[in-house]
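just leaving the lab so this will be short. what follows is a protein written twice so to speak, once as letters and once as structure tokens for the fold. can you read through it and tell me how you think this chain folds. anything you notice is useful, everything is just below:
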Amino acid sequence: MSNALIVIDVQNDFCPGGALEVPGGNDIVEGINAAMAGFDAVILTQDWHPAGHSSFASSHEGKAPLEMIEMPYGPQVLWPDHCIQGSEGAKFHAGLNTDRADMIVRKGYNPSIDSYSAFFENDHTTPTGLEGYLRTRGITSITCVGLALDFCVNYSAVDAAKLGFDVTVDQALCRGIDLNGSLDAAQAGMADAGVSLR
């Protein structure tokens, strides 16, 4: 069985001091680097938004970050402007071993739809291409780590399980936002989808 480590969005804007800081987001970098040696493939994902993205609160008059709105594809959290293409905030954390990556998947670059998952945009139908890459590599087992546990890691893990991959989330190498109970909900949802949480 060929296995892959999928490292989700370990970027400056999600680390302390960033625009959408995940508490302790930088604490997992060393552990992720150490884990890479145990996998046949390493894939990094990178949030990569154009300026004025529709998921930014600043794109909606009178709306504040972390408010919810309804988009054509469903409910959407409005975020602070973050991970704008080419910005310092969009760069990977300086300590992350990017040289070990076989592939980098950029997501969220469509201005009209957000993309939490490494596999699909938030309409749950538009693919990123990652599934095809993993299939052609013969990869059947994946482990997800990174930021944030209750959003992009969660969506990626659940989608991977739905696609038939054997999925583990290493929670020690993740950190969460926990927006109104989102962490507990994400953990329950992943377990229900058949994701192994460790």
